[in-house]
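Ticket #4471: complex job returned nothing on first submit. Input attached below:
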Amino acid sequence: MDALLLQVLNGLDKGSAYALIALGLTLIFGTLGVVNFAHGALFMLGAFCAVTMQRILTLSYEVVDETRTDFLGNPLKVDVPYVQSWFGDSVGGGIIDWAVPISLLMAVPVMIFVGFAMERGLIKHFYKRPHADQILVTFGLAIVLQEIIKYFYGANPIPTPAPDAFAGSFDFGAMLGMQAGSIIYPYWRLVYFFFALAIIGGVFAFLQFTTFGMVVRAGMADRETVGLLGIDIDRRFTIMFAIAAVVAGLAGVMYAPINSPNYHMGMDFLVLSFVVVVVGGMGSLPGAVAAGFVLGILESFASMAEVVAFLPGINQIIIYLVAIIILLTRPRGLMGRKGVMED
Amino acid sequence: MLGLNRKDSLLFVVVICLTMFAPFLLNPFPEGSELAQFNAGYPDLMQRFVIFGIFAIGFNILFGLTGYLSFGHAAFLGVGSYAGVWMMKLLTMNVIPAILISVVVAGLFSVLVGYISLRRSGIYFSILTLAFAQMSFSLAYSVLTPITNGETGLQLSLNDPRILGVSEVDGSIPPANLFGLSMRDSTELAMGNWLFTFNVGYYLSAVVMLIAFYVAIRIFRSPFGMMLRAVKSNQQRLNYTGLNTKPYTLAAFVISGMYAGLAGGLMVAMDPLAGAERMQWTASGEVVLMTILGGAGTLIGPILGAGFIKYFENIFSKINESILHQWFAFLPDGLEDALVFMVYPFIGKGWHLTLGIMFMLVVIFLPGGLVEGGQRLGRLFRRRRKTDTKPGAGATEPAE
Amino acid sequence: MGLLEVKNVNKRFGGLQALGDVNLSVAENTVHAIIGPNGAGKSTLLNCLVGKLIPDTGSVMFDGQSVLGRKPHEINQMGISRVFQTPEIFGDLTVLENVMIPCFARRDGAFKLHAFETVMNEAEIVDMAEAMLTDVRMIEKRDVHAGSLSRGDKRRLEMAMCLVQQPKLLLLDEPTAGMARADTNNTIDLLKEIKASRPITMAIIEHDMHVVFSLAERITVLAQGTPLVEDTPENIKGHPKVQEAYLGQSHE
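Support reply: We reran it on our side without changes. The output follows.
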């Protein structure tokens, strides 16, 4: 029982990331009809927003601490972040500690800008080209974005810790009256899960309850008819692209403490997120979200020692295996609409 | 010639000349000169040119003709490599069985993957092939370690049986050979300041590539090739014309998988080891880049693309900051620094950035790749010449 | 017994009865038109004949064999060729290649791995295709990329591709849809010429009464998925039920 619960919990954070990326991919595919291979790179850019914010907040100047000496006996030079000297140790230190959540504020405008620039500058010209061309050009863009980040931040993962307040772990085992220590779950992962739920809820509410969202949903269902009604659907779709970029970016920001960001994290997630989209059903938003969580949890179950002992290597391939089976037996995916990209 | 029409024969002869004289052509700069770093006439790099050329030629048979974009072709290359190394471990260091088994195993594997993946088309096909390749990659790293030797990669050892050959020669592993002719053997020719290297391994790979290229030309000009182009053009019409598209696409898939296996086998023949990273999807992406960059659907494009990417990968990534400073040393200091600063991100380790940008530019502006670029230039040139001289000089079409 | 026998065919899409008890018999060497207002089930019926759709019940016999459950390419190999509403051709291939493909399909069947022959050395096929192109007066365009042809030429090419297979039955799905009057008349002339020059059975789905009455020897009127009447053009013209079906539609 506790082992099962642990696996569900373990699957949640990865599942959340899959769901958020897949949600963005689906928004873009459903509205613009574009297959965006650069979506993983947007996730990565988000994570590096967190890294950048952390670096900005810890910009420091050197002071000589006369009371201490370094190992050579010279007075010790200490780096003092500007933030800390401006706001005092406790407030300034607190701000630095909360770098990751603070960088959400930075990520939103950055991702909106990136999303707009991408759609207006590049993707727009590919609406009428074949899917293969869309895949290729966004694949090229992903390489470019990834290499730019590598140039500025290096190839190694950069640790980006969560605020101290979330550094600890729940002991679900003890809380639920089971053996203490049997289910240890870091606070931040739970934060990530609820954050993902909030974003997903926000996107759905936006689509469901605003006029803007209604038009977009109509456009997803039947683009031509909506165009005939004289509604400027293109502009709205540009905004949707930016929203999808923001969703991916925010997912990346909050994921930074879970896995230290590196330049190729986007690609790693992208391949799996595509599989998630396919399993959920191309063009189906609820499908993308559900499949994200289901596959995340499935992956975590497949990595249980008992399962691996029985079926070695299953944890490595479970997601792909599910995708292949789904594609062959139910090509439109779990929740895909009939007739959408079925062949 | 050999059942080719005049234009194709000409193209084939040109490619034969280029590959046979590559050790000269790729070493235009004298030894020890400033520009010697741009020479590409050393065996290791030349081998890579032709081996990746084979890989791209095969990929082009699938993607260029049918339009099915596979993102998992590296898996076949990887599987072929493993099979080749095993042949050298168990049987003999002669490269012929290793290369043959690579082709056969990759072919069988591609029948399986193709049969399933080709039940879907469009992006679904791309994602299915991607899923298969990633699966193979993950399995090679985990469960299949007894066969693949996991992260270390599969290598030869002194204890290998090699039942038709010898396990060791003078305490070391015998070199890969073709009936006794070692792949590593090279003859050097010094002419003045120039040094040319003729390597057995390169010439074997080059001959294999020429055969592969010849077969590809024949396929392109065959009724089978025409059907594949028809698949890309209008699958519905093909079905309603009484043709079953499935076996056609599957045959193209398997042929291109066998080409990938052949490339994998040759890699092993040149350097007897195999690692899982050869199967990763970035490796599949690379062959896509080569084909598109050169010109998908054209005969010579994939070879050009493979050569282009491998050349710049090697040369570009060798240039470092101090070399840049040397180049721009004639400029005033401030300007020199500024220029170095601007160029630096694109060279050395930044080579992939240049590659990505180039690739995007090609997809956006030049969907026909370098070949189309060449054709456009040719047309521009001819038009200008026509205005100068009399029209209709009967210029030959640029090679396709 | 006609060449094509459709018996009691039913097809439902969810709640919509697209075809209800359709019976149809197309006699050999005739031109048989199927007309009816929009949504009468004409296209559904056609798709049932070529294997794109499978009827819920009923039978479709062609030349004494059932076509039900066969794939489109198998049905074509039985001798049914189809012309689409918008011409379906191989836009990236040359006109000659477009016509050669159906020739290969006839000679070599649904699949042959002829990877080592050379297309242009297949003299028999090239001759057959060129003769066909001469027939439809397109031989001078043999090396043009089919995608760059005018719409009328595309239609002509598609017909050539179907005819070169010497089909027993040629299905035409609104062959003049969206054409200007002059093009329509050209198409009518082309079809008349085809009919006169060889033994062939045609089934035409058509909206344009001018086309129908110029060509058809038998006419079936379809309304709301069921055949209203089947008769000669002369009798159909004055038939009260037909006028009702069409007038009723025009009042909506």
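Residues 51 and 71 of chain C are 5 Å apart (CA to CA). Closing as resolved unless it happens again.
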